[in-house]
Amino acid sequence: xxxEIVIAFQSWEEARRFIHQNKLIKWIIxxxxxxxxxxxxxxxxxxxxxxxxxxxxxxxxxxxxxxxxERNEWLSFLFVxxxxxxxxxxxxxxxxxFKYVILIIGSPVFAYLSEKTEAIIEGKxxxxxxxxxxxxxxxxxxxxxxxxxxxxxxxxxxxxxxxxPVIGWITPVIALLMECYYFGFSMHDYGFARANMSPAQSxxxxxxxxxxxxGNGLIFYLMHLLIILAPAxxxxxxxxxxxxxxxx
Length: 248
Fold this sequence. Notes:
- With 248 residues, this protein is an all-alpha fold.
- 85% of the residues lie in helices and 0% in strands.
- It has helices at residues 2-21, 26-61, 63-70, 73-105, 107-121, 130-162, 171-194, 199-208, 210-222, 230-247.
């Protein structure tokens, strides 16, 4: 798995050179502006609603009133840490749904960009074919909905686990790795589709090469320091890494 994570990281650097060499920057800026605006708006509304959720859970469990009665610094510390872990899990829960909405909305652009990237790698002339784009979009949307369902189940379990002091502190790390895995999986599937892999074969391949998906997702999160670059870089890097693994 470690080797595959390294390959995924290398593919992002290759994607940077690939974009500049092949003058694909317009495909980075356009989707990136839309993504950035949606991300900022979504985070604004999320922070407002998440405060209400955490406060509601706290009031239902009557934790604050109990802590005031106990006046124990250690218990107060545990409560603060649990509150932080719960907030982090909620952030990832929100980001998970936001990500899936973006994957569905942007699927035509991602499908086109993945096709174009692979055509350039193989030295072929890329011709726009709406039927191929539509077919790849429908396949990826089905996969996105499938991944969204499974990830939601796991995230709900992690939210409950995060309420357990000490043990729940590891949940944000688990949630982040899971988020990276499912994001990378969605990005890689465009390349799998063109390799004539069925959805079942795509799932089996990804399960055998989890490092590729996790690595792609990790860099995607790091790229949010420059939000505008994240989505299109991810699809190009995913296509490059899939092409590299297929050739091994």
